[in-house]
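From the shared-data thread, chain only:
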Amino acid sequence: MILLNDWSTQLALDDPEERRVLSQVSWAQYEALLTELGETSSYRVYLLEGVLEIVAPSRKHENGKTKIGNLLEIYFLETDTNYFPMGSTTLRNPEQQAGGEPDESYCIGTDKEIPDLAIEVIVTSGSINRLELYRRLGVREVWFWQGDRLTLYHQRENLPAQLADTAGYEPISRSELLPDLDIALLTRCIQNPNPLAAAKAFRQGIKGKG
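Structure, as tokens:
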């Protein structure tokens, strides 16, 4: 296993987006790595049952994350929705051996320790089951942006057996946290390569439904 003191230098990555996966990592080692990388680190770090995954996001990854965040902020402002952004705050649950950093995350309605919504931009597939991770962290709704489309999941605590393949989350076509959000409109605007044009079209679409 790579020593923690060597990880920072060994993560000087040439690839636009690269993942490193390590097994048999203890909670103490995970916490030590987070401390070593610091709060300003650009890496995303995930731990689930001793499996550690470190992601160096690409420009494409960060572009998608930023665009989704900007559009959602427009939605919150235009619809007067009370929200509390948590960004890529590190979420931890040592009892469940789970920790992670979503690309974007939000509390809706009231501020909380754990966000209601976590959003992940997937450019390259990883080894850690993100839905299982977020179930253990207590996140109610998870969105994935992958292949130019949004996939939404909402946690169903009363249907664990029927939804075992998705860690107790049910695929949904409309957000239950933001039921008035037009997912088709949001998707089209995320796909728009021009951020300014995307923001204008999204705002106009919201106003047109008001």
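The longest strand covers residues 149-155.
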